[in-house]
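Quick entry between incubations.
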Amino acid sequence: MATARPVVSIYNFENPSEKTGTMPMPVVLQSPLRPDLVREVHRDMAKNKRQAYAVKPKAGYDTAAESWCTGRAVARIPRAPGGGTHRAGQAAFGNQARGGGMFNPTTIWRRWHRRVNVTKKRHAVACALAASALPPLVMARGHKINQVAELPLVVSDGIQSLTKTKQAKEALKKLGCGEELQKVIDSKSIRAGQGKARNRRYVKRLGPLVIYNEDNGITRAMRNIPGVECAHVDRLNLLRLAPGGSFGRFVIFTEGAFKKLSDIYGTLKSGAPKKKGYTLPRAAMANADLARIINSTEVQSVLRPKMERYTHGIKRNALKSKELMEELNPGSTERRAVHLKSSQKGTPEYDEVQKKKKARIEESKKYNKEHKKGDETFYKTLMKAFEAKAAADAAKKAAEKAEDEEDEE
Amino acid sequence: MAERYAISKVNVPEGAAVPELVKMKMEKEEKLAEEKKQALAAKQKAREEERAKLKERTVAYEKEYADTAAELVKLRREAKLNGNFFVEPEAKLIFVVRIAGIMKMSPKPRKVLQLLRLKQLHNGVFLKVNKPILNMLKLVQPYVTYGYPSLKTVRELIYKRGFGKVSKQRIPLSSNDIISDALGKHGIHGMEDIIHEIYTVGPNFKQVSNFLWPFKLSSPKGGFVNKRHGYCEARGGDWGNREELINELLGRMN
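Done. Structure below.
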């Protein structure tokens, strides 16, 4: 926002197609835009004009009701005493009872008002003024400013001396506010809700806010034009500059008022002459163009390059995918091919395998011939020992039998 | 690192005025693209060298496996021939699978299972056989089944269900680069290196086994016999040491 201040043209109030002069834009109108701040301050300020409401203190409790307690086949809620009338024995006091008090009765000592820090309020006003100088924001708020020559719209001081409403209306129309004023007239409708029965029957849109320095009749001229409001530059109200908490009100300044803005608010360096101890709000970022900052050489030169992300994809099984197996185990395909070849007749690998097999079988036969024939084999030696024992047992048995026979004889 | 630069193409319509920022970006991207190309070429060359070396090592490993097997056969035959007994070498490698769920687990076995990284049902890890490990397994006997995996089992587990721990994430072993980056300093650059280190329980077994995320196996097709009882019990069961027969179970769980 620290650019050279633009120059604003001042329009002749009688003949708005000609300009009577120029003026540099006051620094207020270049304050940083803080919709959150304006919303917050507006919310709290708007609460300050409230009137208290509450139910009567004794509402629902103005009976001598007492609970009948247990034993009478009725609920234990307090009941109105006496007899001879419908009211007798009816429930009372509870919020559930007919004619009883409400739950948590509204009170007049509810905290209706809010205090807002003075600096905050001033910042909010500065912010709202700045927003009123930006066509997109004013249009976004809903004002019809297509025919308006320039924003901020500054008119020569003569407009402050208008006394007739008709003249004021003419002047505004010539300035390009015709569409805006028509919008207000067209928007008059009956309020939705109970307000219509409470002396707030009609609602309509808001039109331009005329900010003046010296009231030589302008307020009375403008006050009957639907939608138009007037404000003295010394006493700017956030509730009018940002109605409903949304900034960007269509504002028409008089020359004197516009000049006085600089006198009231001053600059960031000088502070505000007319507001003790106050300086206009500063922006949180001097340069808010993030794209430019990020892509500047100062920043980019110390960044490491952007890297591709690691993606691992779906895990494949190397035991099933020959491609993956070759990737993980280089040479596996050719080894496998060689291995397969060895089972195909006619290939040298096959012959090699067959040769080895033959050699193995030969060896085995030789070994068997050497070690597994004859009488010294494991089995034969085992059986020999067995036979020896069997022979010894048989001999012993025969000897015993012979003895027995002898004994018998 | 330069091979991972993300280069974005800027589409400039013909004859259009190029904004200042876009121009700056284009120049920057051009320079990075150049660096990236060179880095990729260097990486490709390094990769080919690595692959050639890995191929040689793999052939050497296969020969080693065949030789050790043949040696054992020879010794067995020799012993029989001489009427001696051949004492089979004790297993060096164990594969442990968690059989029990997580509910109602006593604190001590629970802690031991955590230490062994068996935090979930049917999780499996490779372990080295030594006194401390055997003592730990004794504590968690009824909750695990374990045995001595064969080379085939080790290969199949690592190829099918091998995931690595890369910056605390469980990354599939879909490329030898992942292995090389993590275990390169221990001389392990590929799948076959891992398999060799695990199967032969080499000097870097601890690092390799820890790099491998605990295997998440399926429930065995055909079922368990009875998880409540021990494998060695007469009435039939599943927990405890089932030595060589772990391979049959893993064949159904992998």
